[in-house]
Design brief:
Distance between the termini: 48 Å
CATH class of the largest domain: Alpha Beta
Radius of gyration: 50 Å
Number of domains: 3
Largest sheet: 5 strands, mixed
CATH architecture of the largest domain: 2-Layer Sandwich
CATH topology of the largest domain: Beta-Lactamase
Strand order of the largest sheet: 1-3-4-5-2
Number of strands: 10
CATH superfamily of the largest domain: PAS domain
Structural class: alpha+beta
Order of helices and strands: HHHEHEHEEEHHHHHEHEEHEE
Length: 525
Amino acid sequence: MIEAFKDWVGRWWPPLRLRWILFAVLLFAAAMPGFAALYLRVYENTVVRQTEAELVAQGAALAAVAAIEWPGAPPPPPKPVDPPEGYYRPEFTSIDLTLGQVLPERPWMRKTRNALDPDAVYVARRINPVIERTLQTTLASVYILDRHGYGVAGQGYGRDFSGLPEVRWALSGRPYTVMRINGDLERQSSFEWLSKASGIRLHHARPIVAGGQVKGVLLLSRSPRALFRGLYEDRGKIIFGAALILGILVMLSGLVSRGVAGPIEKLSAASRQVAAGGGEIPPTPRTAAREIRDLYVDFRAMAERIERRSGYLRDFAAAVSHEFKTPLAGIGGAVELLQDHFETMSPAERRRFLDNIAGDSDRLSQLVTRLLDLARADMALPEAGVSADLAEAVRRTVDAQAAEAFAVAVDAPSDLPAVAAPATTLESVLTVLLQNARQAGAKRARVRAAVEGEDVVVTVSDDGPGVPEADRERLFEPFFTSRRAQGGTGLGLSIARSLLAASQGRIELAPGPGATFRVTLPRAA
């Protein structure tokens, strides 16, 4: 099901450039705070809680004044020089605009027939000037209620507020704040539906405590500052912040484009040119990311390896064509002469042409065999955990190659460490080197094995004429040989080098008397 969904999306997914994807990701990350402030109501919640904190502070001050003015209330104790723990009791906000419940609009309270508390009426008259002065600044609505929840001043005089949940909480001795729908709201903008705070009003009820008893309640209400009004008031800061974020976003986009998208596009263009048979891999950009730099290095190494492999295949094909052309031409010419002059030839001439055909056929067969050996060597892969006894491989090879006219001395300690190469590879390489020495006219050869650091080195030397200085550079090239007339194919050393390379080994021509070859092998783990 998931794969089907991916296929469906893939059919409709538009091809996007990497730089636009990176820009979209950065833009989304930059816009997240704005989305959080608008849709998660982070900013509005802060504004509403600020309004609640102002109502709490105003209510605490008015309730303290009312408690002092209450008839028969003891005077407040003086502030201790060293206030004890718990003397200060800060009151934190409790409104959550996102999760909190919004109650219906506060109903118009009915008149009560019960008698009002005369002490509450007296206190209301005493502190009413203070309330009026306060309202001029805070714009909050304030009702004073007695201990039964009846209004004792202003528009709420004689009305019963005791049915409101916030009043009931305050009469029990605990301040309480609720959110209610603001029925008097007149929307001035079509975007105000985005603001939840613009349609509510906070109602805070606070008990008046005198002599340790709840004597009355202060009921305060106020509309919080609307979202768009707050945004308008802070428009300068918001515009500056948005411009700063946009500038940083553009700078980061340019940095990412320069470090990732641009180098990838250049590398892609270069790869197409290389695939078309021209062009070069551009230099690694200094401003590119580290992974992109590594990609350039790896791609350049791959291109160079492909180029070397391509050149090797071209040269190999040309060499194979040249090597096969000579015996094939000889066979074709001999067959043509036999077809045209078979009846007029003497038996000796026929035998000579047939021998030439047989010789060229043997040479072709030998070439094919050696080419198969070279192909297997080139395609050989490292074997995990391979281990071989070098001293034993040396002894077996020497026993097979030693002859009456070709003596081979061995200097290989029996305690040599095992090497990380197959025994067949070791024997094949040593066989090639000893056969080359014997065919070059050497009478004696020496095989020496020793440990050098983390490797095991095998040195094969002979007393032959050695390798001419002009041939040293081409010695390991396929089909290069100075004994072509004697049937040499020029593939032995190439096969040896490929076999060793598959086991992380190497072979090189070393200075010394005669021909001296140095074979380096890694130790087995």
